[in-house]
Design goal:
CATH class of the largest domain: Alpha Beta
CATH architecture of the largest domain: 3-Layer(aba) Sandwich
Largest sheet: 5 strands, antiparallel
Shape: flat
Radius of gyration: 33 Å
Low-confidence stretches: 1-23
Oligomer: single chain
Length: about 525
């Protein structure tokens, strides 16, 4: 039995008049729990040791639950001290800011604000100054709208001890709202598409892959699906023709996952010599075979541990190598060549192929059980000829990419764009990318013209398809100009309406807008406004 002693020796009354008992546990000289003298008037009761152990277990369970809630919260949460120093952030906070935990901990708010991706508006600084809750709305690096609420936490003495910061993604909440409204039959489909498109654009910005362009419904659906499943560890199989961008999709999945800060290891299975497949994938111990390294070697799976491994052209593996791969995928462990013990793995597996694996299964050239194992989620990347609306967007994206890379300022002639758009690109995105790089680096003038293009594309420049595309581009450009003018006029009218209400004369409007007085008179007449007019709509 353990006895508890009152700190003052007696039960005391609080200011409210209700009894209060202050307890103290005494320790002996060895640090163990000492039992107070039962004759001591300060001893007011005793608690069984088993009861203390039970209370300790309950307290530990409550702490574990609090930690779990903190870690698993979908909202970003940060805890700071009273000086504005970050003490802890959760996983969602890392995901939403794009900055790992170790860069936050121990840093002051002002120091973190100097980083380019950290918003300059700070609810936390407001709390540190006013000791009152504060809320700000900011845009993240991915273009999403985020609401940040900071609240003070006070100690029993009334002094502020901490600031609790909560970060909530408003953009994604709006998407969920639209999805809910759609289920209820009240959302407009156009608004829902706009919200989904905006969300996808934010995901593309977060992944930061310049060559990944979306300008067709089929690719929008594909990348939306990829973004939605990126954070799951399920095995993904990406299939499509050579050059369609399967590797970019794999990197997109990795960069949007919780493993983004860990290794991304890419392996071309078709380039592995059959006698070295096991060693390359799973590693080997010292002296495992003739010519092996004396120190041994880690395999690609072990190098990717904690991150993602991308097995490109998996259909090129021999059936024997497929069996070994299946065992690793099932057991989540590897045994290096020549090793005696297995090593546990934590790795996300993404596979890709340009072959029809089901046909290979029928020919007994690919294991059916391995196909089922890697095809948990299937993403099909269509060839470029099946998404013609994407050619122009990819062309301009690649031109901008290589202009920036090589310090050039090349532009494309309208006829060249039309010829490009008429070509089917049997090599898909890879062929287009390599061609644009060649044109940016080898053409002499600032403008890339039809005569600079390869012969197979030059011949298309005068064809009916190219002519139709050229005319469509001209009409699209004119429509953009008209739309721009309309938006500019709307903005101009709003500005003049504001000054017409707040200024007494056209001379005062001219002085405040830096326009001439005659220009102000002409524009007010155009929009049916007058100085001192407070009735305009």
């Amino acid at each position: 039995m353990r006895r508890l002693a009152g700190a003052s020796g007696h039960r005391r009354k609080a200011q409210t008049g209700s009894p209060r008992l202050t307890l103290r546990l005494e320790a002996d000289e060895n640090g163990g729990m000492a039992e107070p003298n039962v004759d001591d008037p300060r001893v007011v009761g005793q608690v069984d040791g088993a009861r203390i152990a039970e209370l300790e277990r309950s307290l530990a369970a409550i702490r574990a639950l609090n930690d779990a809630v903190f870690v698993s919260s979908y909202d970003g949460i940060a805890v700071l001290d009273s000086e504005g120093v970050y003490l802890e952030v959760n996983t969602a906070y890392e995901r939403m800011t794009g900055i790992p935990r170790e860069r936050w901990i121990g840093r002051r708010v002002e120091e973190m604000q100097r980083l380019p991706d950290v918003p300059k508006q700070s609810a936390t600084l407001q709390v540190l100054s006013t000791k009152r809750p504060a809320t700000t709305l900011v845009n993240t690096r991915g273009g999403e709208l985020v609401m940040i609420t900071a609240s003070p936490h006070f100690g029993s003495d009334g002094e502020m001890r901490n600031v609790i910061q909560n970060m909530r993604n408003i953009t994604q909440l709006n998407i969920l709202k639209f999805q809910l409204e759609k289920a209820r039959g009240s959302a407009k489909l156009l608004d829902l598409r706009k919200a989904r498109r905006h969300w996808l654009e934010s995901q593309l910005a977060a992944a930061a892959i310049d060559e990944l362009v979306v300008a067709s419904p089929v690719m929008e659906n594909l990348l939306s699906t990829a973004a939605e499943i990126a954070d799951f560890d399920s095995t993904v199989l990406i299939d499509g023709e050579t050059g369609t961008g399967k590797g970019m999709i794999a990197r997109f999945l990795h960069r949007l996952s919780r493993r983004a800060g860990k290794p991304f290891v890419e392996i071309n299975c078709g380039a592995l010599p059959e006698n070295l497949v096991e060693s390359e994938l799973f590693g080997h111990e010292a002296g495992a075979f003739t010519g092996s390294l004396r120190t041994g070697k880690k395999g690609q799976f072990e190098l990717a541990n904690g991150g993602t491994i991308f097995l490109d052209e998996i259909g090129e593996l021999s059936v024997a190598s497929q069996a070994k791969l299946l065992k690793v995928l099932d057991g989540k462990e590897i045994r290096p060549l020549g090793g005696t013990s297995a090593r546990q793995l934590d790795v996300r597996v993404i596979c890709a192929t340009n072959r029809n694996l089901r046909e290979l299964v029928a020919k007994r050239e690919f294991r059916e059980d391995l196909l089922y194992r890697i095809e948990v989620i299937l993403l099909h990347v269509p060839p470029l000829r099946e998404r013609p609306e994407e050619k122009k967007a990819l062309l301009y994206a690649m031109l901008e990419h290589f202009n920036k890379k090589f310090g050039r300022d090349k532009v494309l002639a309208l006829e060249a764009v039309a010829a490009f758009s008429s070509y089917e690109f049997p090599g898909n995105v890879r062929e287009l990318k390599n061609l644009v790089e060649r044109l940016v680096t080898t053409t002499r003038g600032e403008e890339i013209r039809v005569e600079d293009l390869p012969p197979q594309i030059q011949t298309l420049a005068s064809g009916p398809a190219a002519v139709a595309i050229r005319d469509a581009i001209v009409e699209e450009s004119l429509a953009e100009v008209v739309d721009y003018r309309e938006r500019l006029e709307k903005l101009e009218r709003q500005m003049l309406h504001h000054f017409a209400r707040s200024c007494r004369s056209t001379y005062e409007i001219a002085r405040r807008t830096k326009l001439t007085q005659s220009a102000v008179v002409r524009k007010l007449r155009k929009y049916g406004l007058s100085a001192g007019d407070s009735s305009g709509s």
